[in-house]
Amino acid sequence: MTESPKHSQALTYWIAGAIVAAIAVALIVPNFATHFEIGGELFLRALKMIVVPLVFTSVMCGVLGMGDVRQLGRPGAAAIGYYLCTTVLAVVIGLITVNIIRPGVGTVDPAVIERLASETRLPEGQTEAPGMGVVLENLALMLISDNLFAAAADTQLLPIIVFAIAIAALMTTMIDRVGAITTLVTEANDLLLRFVMALMKVAPLGIFCLVTARFGKAQADGRFIEEISQIGWYFAAVVIGLAVHAFVVLPLIYYLVTKKNPYSYMAAMSQALLTAFSTASSSATLPVTLECAESAGVSKRSTEFVIPLGATINMDGTALYEAAAAIFIAQAIGFDLTLSDQLIIAVTATLAAIGAAGIPEAGLVTMLIVLGAVGLPLEYLGLILAVDWLLDRFRTAVNVLGDSIGAAVVGTTIPDPEPSPVN
Questions:
Q1: CA dist., res. 15 & res. 368, Å (int)
Q2: Dist. CA 47–CA 27, nearest whole Å
Q3: Is-contact 64 168, C-beta < 8 A?
Q4: Is residue 372 predicted with pLDDT exceeding 70?
């Protein structure tokens, strides 16, 4: 068994410094900052390049590490239960926060509301929100792909995960005849993680380019400060909700299950969280999340099984944001929502965050589903688009934190490996 890689704390400081420097450069020389986009895109592509093979090998290693396939049931049930519970809690926090702060009441100029609504561009041909039937059907179809290579090309991870679990489960029943394949998968997984460690050596530079270009573009457009001044309370409400979930709810779950200090664990995951903020992509951050969680002491069998699945269907930050955004839009345009309407938003946001990932323009379409569930006008989605790119970074970091804590929680349900027989 290979030794877990160890983090350099200095790298975390370099990444944090790169983000601060990038924001400073973007604010001071925004037009120049946009030229760093190519460097950021190269780094992002390098991360995404290894996502599919790493997911395939890591999930297989996780299942193979269980030994008897029948032992997969308890960890699997624990993982799904954790995902559902934390997502529901996130939605509830979003609803409570936005109802207490009421960011849409008397804060947005009616002229701005009309202007932003008129500028909203819905996905082509999208005149009404997809129903929940579409979401549930899409979720079912996401599980199985008729062409695994096409799924890999489109980075559709869920069918790859399902296939990897199925193949690895079968391998555990014929272990004497698949020794060579098991060795190949295990060593390939170790090699890919070593590649991640090498890539992280240039992460501060790549992250600097990513953040500089995106913040520089927002600053160069000239309207970011103007629009955030109008919907600043909404921005604050979502960030406060995400902070409560990230620094109170998830650490409490971690402590209650593991009896360990959650904030020490969060500090150990800092490289993954900073990478998530920089890339705004749970999938792109997945290689770093796996490596950080293992270095933090989480069972390798748990990280390899739980984190890839969580990166696909566990979206705490996204669900919280969608619930809060829907209530904000209703408040801003004077649309009265009853308690039953808010319950519908809660259920819809929970399911949409899980089941809408395969829909084209998923982020926008997911919000359309939530708005349409309670009859909110879709064109007012423009109210939140100005700051969506920045909030996306915060909620992605929360998504990644939820996945990593899930790995530690589910790890407590995985039995210790049986000692290898001595030849």
A1: 35
A2: 27
A3: yes
A4: yes
